[in-house]
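Record type: monomer structure entry
Structure origin: computed from sequence
Chain ID: A
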Amino acid sequence: MTSTRPLHPVGTNAPDAPDDPGGSGVRVQHDTSAAPEHVWSILADGWAYATWVVGASRMRRVDPTWPAQGSRLHHSFGLWPLVIDDTTTVLTSVERAELTLQARGWPAGEATVWVTLTPRAGGTRITIVEDVTTGPGTLVPQPVRQLAIAPRNQEALRRLAWLAEGRGRRSVTGV
């Protein structure tokens, strides 16, 4: 199940809604049969970033402390040969629960991305909240940004869930 809806303002304690560190953003959720530790194992594997993040085309380097606060991924985005090298930095990291990132995508700007994992019967609810926070992308009206961010993050969560489900099956079967 994937759902998209605008965020409630920070502090309103909307049901099941995490506070958005930026105060606004696009919120997308996806329920997976994978356990939180399997989803986290994909998030904690920086080399897997380009596999599930839509638009990321390759990884160049992963800090050895990833996903610790302050660690960075060095990635590229775009279609070859028109790729741009940039970085993503961990703002906060709570193992098996939360990962907040500052994703750079210049010349468009930067976005804050908050990923949360909520255990549920039979799996995990993965929530991603994202919005542009600096740069020219902030000049695009938020409703227009939402039209681009929501479908991209729906696909990203599907990919993340498939990877985690595969890792979960592999840990159970040993294959």
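Annotation 1: The longest strand covers residues 82-94.
Annotation 2: The chain has a mean pLDDT of 87.
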